[in-house]
Amino acid sequence: MRIVIDTNVIASGVFFGGKPRQLLELLLQRKIDVYVSFEILQEYQETFEYLKDKYPDKPVTIPVAQIALRCKVIEPSSTIHICRDPDDDKFISCAVDGKCMYIVSGDKDLLTLGRYNNIEIVKVTEFFAKYWKE
Fold first, then answer.
1. Less Cβ around it within 10 Å: N or C end of the chain?
2. Cα 112 to Cα 54: distance, rounded to the nearest angstrom
3. CA distances from residue 109 to 13, 50, 84, 120 in whole angstroms, order as listed
4. Percentage of the chain modeled with pLDDT above 90
5. How far apart are CA 116 and CA 133, in angstroms?
6. pLDDT tens digits, one per residue of 7-57
7. Which residues pair with 102 in a beta bridge?
8. 34 forms bridges with which residues in the sheet?
9. Residues 6+ apart with CB under 8 A from 88
10. What's the pLDDT tens digit per position in 106-117?
């Protein structure tokens, strides 16, 4: 299964646990294929550094480098301008060019779209409830 994971889900999984961490575990176990661009990886890293400084007492459960090593890095060629927050368009471009089925996000700007072409944009809880049955 090919997906794109938004930065907020990565950050929640690394620092807070719950369903976002379960999603990261699927990545680490190679049960899902997560597609990223270099721009997305950079955002993951910047957010990770910010949260590490903001929550110095929170243990880092999964290093961002470990997540990056498991992701499939592509250089998207699509230029999509559909989100009300233009910074989120990179996730859609990556999903289109990676031929992904889902974007897993907690971002309202992405979630309000619901779908782009054949790509569903879902919350992590919805992903597990509807699409990941193991």
1. C
2. 29
3. 20, 21, 6, 14
4. 87
5. 23
6. 999 999 999 899 999 999 999 999 999 999 999 999 999 999 999 999 999
7. 3, 120
8. 3
9. 6, 107, 109, 110
10. 999 999 999 999
